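thought: fold this chain, then report.
action: predict
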Amino acid sequence: MRYKNIKKGKFISRPNRFIAQVEIDEKNETVHVKNTGRCKEILIDGCDVWLTAPGSPGRKTKYDLVTARKTNGLIINIDSQAPNKAMLEWLNRQGCDRIIPEYTYGNSRIDFYIENGNEKILMEVKGCTLENDGIGYFPDAPTERGIKHIQELIKAKDDGYKAVLAFVIQMNGIKEVRPNKETHPEFETAWKEALKAGVEIIFCTCKVWENGFEITGQEKSNDKDTFRMSW
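observation:
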């Protein structure tokens, strides 16, 4: 998954969760931030950021902020729409029989419905951008929506589907994601309930560049109840 164009800048500030002030070509520019999470460990005054200019008509901002360099040197893609795009690319490379994005299941939408042989799979995708000491954490802010998605996967498992919660790690070298219980303890509880119910949790490792990234493989947690995908 690569962006068509990319521009380097210096992060200045983030007045709210939707916009940031960035220095581009020695000018202060208001840009759209493609992630409504906190990203406070990443977007620090003076850090390098990379932006893309989609060129969509009627936009209030010219640029989207999509990538940043953390103070420890780690380049992180923070585009919240990118994990699903990268996952679709990755699934297409696996030779699955059928892939339907944004699949209607009951009264909800699940990121992917997949058929692989006799297996019918429902997959929800989460992007991980929070890192500490070489470990990824999710979420970086409380997410009732994330808990709802886990509950949907548990129901899908009860209905006979293979249910998968996939974390796309939007940075290099990180192979594990843990629930961020300090930020949202209820999410950790839902995570454990999903494992007990037989929902598979996988961590998708990635190769990240300033202008995009791709999923390169998958890892399992040290938790013995977390499984690798079978395809």
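thought: worth noting. The chain has three helices and 15 strands.
final: tokens above.
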